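Q: Hi! First time doing this. I have a protein sequence and I read that you can turn it into a structure. Is that right? Here it is:
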Amino acid sequence: LKVQSKGTGDIEFSATGSGTIEFKSNITMAAGVSLVSADANPVDFSSGVQGGNVAISGNQITNSATNQDLNLSGNGNGKVSVNDSLLVTGDLTVQGTTTTVESTNTLINDALIVLSNGTTGTPANDSGFVIERGSSTNVAMVWDESADEFAFVNTSEDGTTTGNVTISSYA
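A: Yes, that's right. Below is the predicted 3D structure, encoded as structure tokens:
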């Protein structure tokens, strides 16, 4: 059954009273077609949306399949942004080349912090903490692998070195 307008008119489906319009099969929309509200407000899916094992209902996105990952991803190099507080109640694994934390205060309950995790064989890289000091020389507390000792140093290091930290002088 094909229903179409002749010309530029709209096709309206309207149930009378408190009736509903029911689709008894899957709905397929043509590519590039959007589902939009006539008043430009978000479309209300108050009873949720479900596809495959993923369901969106209220303020929750869930994977109904047991022990399967739920992946949120941007397209290509796009980002997935969280604009409010994020609470992680399980383990958090961050994989990548650089992890940037831009917070005013960082509170860590752990009594031990492991640096250079995953090092195998004979260690070759210095490891430690660098303090950025604006227009003044940076300072650092590092394990100097070549001297086999801890050193408090003045340095131009910015935390991007892999290997030996350049030591300007000892602090």
